[in-house]
Amino acid sequence: MEINISNSKIELGQQAAIKGASLIQQAIIERGKARIILATGTSQFELLSALLKQPIDWRKVTVFHLDEYIGLPKSHPASFRKYLKERFADKVRLQQFNYVNGEKNPADECARLKKLINRSPIDVAFIGIGENGHLAFNDPPADFDTEEAYIQVQLDEACRNQQFREGWFSTFDQVPKEAISMSIQQILKSKSIICSVPDQRKARAVKNSLQEPISPMNPASILRQHPATWLFLDQDSASLLEGVE
Known about the structure:
The chain is an alpha/beta fold and about 240 residues long.
């Protein structure tokens, strides 16, 4: 894993976007197309904004996203479909965007997405790390073993509190308790991973992911086993790391 520490969130997003764009461009040169994964949440604002400014032929790019709440309409401010449509998909001409539809039967939706994502390898996954160390909505203890591409998960209290504090919901009780999430193993199948993690509130999760044992209790720690992962931090999110400059 290569660790990059920036002076600000804006710089973090720019550096992550530049590296990610180079990997997308490489895939297009080699195969004539690229397949990528995009994350959501406030931690991805700067990355997505900077990525849109990169010289990429988006018409050759297919996008998947990581997760969606079960039962939440796409018109809701917290909907990840709404988030990515407004902040990304509507701003570029893509080959295809494969949304996770949490309003459909979860088992059927997981099966549908599995068929789509298994058609060809993922070139680049743009992801983040949650305050509880989760990847996508794989809260601790995360399932490191399932080979299913997408799974139905229960959201723990820490995860739901993060969504509430970020302002996506008016009250904690409004935060859904279930979601459809890309699995850990499916994320790890990506050829390259760009992980963007700003803010002081993520510092403990970053430290646990990098300097504690690899464990389902620290889901993002599994990234240390991936051969091509770039982790982008700012001074705040890196503040608890020992021996890392």
